[in-house]
Write a structure and sequence with these properties.
This protein has 135 residues and is an alpha/beta fold. The protein has a single domain, classed as 5'-nuclease (Rossmann fold).
């Protein structure tokens, strides 16, 4: 599996190191699971951490050591309808060959959840749904 984490899920893991998002990171087997995110997502979560929960920066930095950073593909148009601010997230997941894009953004990604046939083979899910299906 290749799991791409959106900024809001990284924030959750840093904010709540005993929560479900952190459980997925902690439980990822290095030979079976690749953890992915993008510099764009990292900047967003860092900005939100500084504003909302500065103590979580240390947790975030620990988690980020386990992730591969993937740049979005800027030369191709986004194949699904998303606001401009979310397109770099999807495009980075696509470029990183993610099997899953884990996000809590139901407003913008909600209509694409659990529809890999419409999202270039990427299964977009919330952390809760990912864990429910996994178990």
């Amino acid at each position: 599996m290749r799991l791409f984490f959106d900024a809001n899920v990284l924030f959750s893991a840093a904010y709540s190191p005993e929560g479900r998002a952190a459980d997925v990171i902690r439980g990822a087997h290095p030979h079976l699971t690749v953890l992915l995110t993008s510099p764009y997502a990292v900047l967003e979560v860092q900005k939100n951490m500084v504003a909302k929960y500065p103590a979580g920066i240390q947790n975030l930095n620990v988690w980020l050591r386990l992730f591969q950073l993937v740049q979005p593909m800027h030369h191709d148009p986004c194949p699904i309808e998303l606001p401009a601010k979310d397109q770099p997230i999807f495009m980075a997941a696509l470029h990183g060959r993610a099997t899953h894009l884990i996000t809590g953004d139901l407003k913008h990604f909600g209509k694409w959840m659990n529809k890999p046939g419409q999202t270039q083979g990427i299964l977009i899910q919330t952390i809760a749904h990912f864990l429910d299906v996994l178990h």
